[in-house]
Write a structure and sequence with these properties.
Blueprint: H1 2-8, E1 19-24, E2 27-33, H2 43-46, H3 49-53, H4 69-79, E3 88-93, H5 97-106, E4 110-115, H6 120-128, E5 132-135
Parallel strand pairs: 3-4, 4-5
Antiparallel strand pairs: 1-2, 1-3
Helix pairs in contact: 5-6
Length: 145
């Protein structure tokens, strides 16, 4: 998780810095942080649409110019032809419902996150899919990657 938190420092989001790494057999396969698509202006440069519109956290995720850290980690793996099925995602924040659906389809079997996010539906879908969910620092978790 220390590496995941370091990846989050690359975020260009003005509201929340999030980092994600995908790991299998204790090997980092891919990393991602939240920010605008490559070649586009970042919120640091143009401001945050969500702030301008007064959108609360956890609502209307489509009204953001940035991709989430989990999405960028999946995309990076795809760009470089790195299979991620059967792996673990470490993330500084609980995935939202959009990321949860992508992680399920990507074959991620375990998600470890450090901070909550107001999206119970995401947790419900991950549970239904049989994805193991662990909260970083919770004593009952076995956090092997």
């Amino acid at each position: 998780m220390d590496i995941t938190m370091r990846v989050a420092t690359r975020s260009t989001c003005l509201r929340r810095s999030v980092g994600a790494i995908i790991v299998r057999d204790k090997r980092i396969l891919s990393t991602g942080y939240n920010g605008a698509p490559r070649g586009l202006a970042h919120c640091e440069e143009v401001g945050c649409l969500r702030v301008k519109l007064g959108i609360p956290s956890g609502q209307r995720p489509e009204l953001c110019r940035g991709l989430h850290a989990e999405q960028n980690a999946i995309i990076q793996a795809a760009l470089y032809g790195t299979p991620i099925e059967g792996s673990t995602l470490y993330c500084t924040t609980q995935p939202c419902v959009i990321c949860a659906k992508m992680l399920i389809n990507a074959g991620i079997v375990h998600i470890v996150y450090a901070n909550p996010y107001p999206d119970e539906f995401a947790l419900s879908l991950l549970s239904e899919a049989g994805t193991k969910i662990s909260i970083w620092g919770a004593p009952e978790d076995n956090l092997g990657g």
